[in-house]
Amino acid sequence: MVEIPETLPARMFLLAYDLNKKRLALSGGTLGYLLRAAALTELYLDGRLDEERRRPTPGTPGEDPYGLVAQISASRPRSWQYWVRKDGRAMVRTVRQELADGGWIRVRHRRRLGLFPHDEITVRDPRVVKTLWGGASSALRGRPVAHVNSYDAAAVALAAAGELKTVLPAPDRRRHKRRIEELTARSGPAAPAARKVIRATQYSAAASGG
What Pfam families does the entry give (predicted)? Predict the structure, then answer.
């Protein structure tokens, strides 16, 4: 069997990797939102975060690998969208380092045209990404939603929120719309919050001509 990372953010980072183009399929900003939402979802599914008045609150004490529970505990009540937006790029760096340290990816520091810094990312074993794809695919098509692995369900919900084409091309998002909604409802509030944040960012960029 192919071993895959345990954390949901690490899995989503790998799912965002395009094996054909050998690069990440999302920009750093969008990827950061997706990884923050993945971390919030993991905490929610494991009971370490609860929800009160549509805001995350600390739940059962336990591991806090990315420090989000500590951030939420130290803050006044804020929306899920706020916590999805916060420190997104730092989250990308943290998860990337986690994967590099674990031997899942290789990061080479390059310069485009000899001037501009650029990090070239390579997945060491493409079978890991394909295994994660398989889990997401089976979540879309197989057993009743209640029996789907919680992280596979969350991967689909997050991929839909981020319009992650490596996992859910547009035709699949349309074809499986109802199933995606059911998987999203099962996965908690962070994925819908990420969708709102990402769409607002896209709209802002389009309005400004970016």
Answer: GPP34
